[in-house]
Amino acid sequence: MDDASSSPGHEASPTPADAATNTTGGVDPTLILWMLSLTPEARLRWLENVLRTLREVRRGT
Amino acid sequence: MEPDLRALLLELADCGADFIVVGGIAAVLQGVPLATFDLDVVHSRAPGNVQRLLELLARLDASSRLRPPSEVLRPGAEALGGPGHQLLRTRLGPLDLLGSVEGGLGFEELEGQSEPFLLEGRTLRVLSLQALAELKKNATSPKDQLSRLMILETLRLKREP
Questions:
Q1: DSSP assignment letter at B105
Q2: Which residue in A41, B3, B32, B34 is deepest, having the highest Cβ count within 10 Å?
Q3: Residues of A with CB under 8 A from a CB of B
């Protein structure tokens, strides 16, 4: 999850130069900026991919 | 069947019910990278709306998550017309129908703090990030505190990209 470029369904990954440099409480601003670059539909697809991956990990597949 | 929260959201929109998306899905729709496992909505408790929801719950084979899967217990009009929370399993995934949220706020109070979102041709009402953060202001669980932090950071980045 730390590497936005490896997130499934991504459409435009921010470069380090694009991202904010300061963080709050360890929150990764690059991931938020990447999410903000997506449409609401694409954000839901991201969530679906995350949940599918979590289910697969839990199942051990 | 695997949960399909997007399909669940679209079914809710298509049934004609008045509701506001809150919780994790509301945050995700607005760009907060949170993983959430259920769909939380605050519904209008008006009788006509409750009837539309009851018909939808029947189509979705909804039942209480607080009971074993073998025991189908579906909320009735009285439950959906009250301020409580109905935690349901459906054939499309977990659905929480909330009559009210923190501070006793219901659909009417939250509608003004929601924003229209277009999703696959449907217009949904989604609680604003500011209002989501406000609801979690007094949260004590680490999960809710982390969610609030992510929401506040997203708000900051939206304002000062």
A1: B
A2: B32
A3: 1, 20, 23-25, 27, 29, 31-36, 38, 40-41, 43-48, 50-52, 54-55
Global confidence as pTM: 0.86
Q: Which two tokens stand for residue B61?
A: 């084979």
Residue B114 lies in a domain: yes
Query: Is B39 within the bounds of a domain?
Result: yes
Structurally, chain B folds into a number of domains equal to: 1
**Reported ipTM:** 0.87
Q: Is residue B43 part of a domain?
A: yes
Q: What is the pLDDT of residues A27-46, one digit of tens each?
A: 789 999 999 999 999 999 99
**Quick one: which of B5, B2, B13 has its CA closest to B96?**
B5
- Chain B CB contacts of A33 under 8 Å are 157, 161
Q: Does B10 touch chain A (CB under 8 A)?
A: no
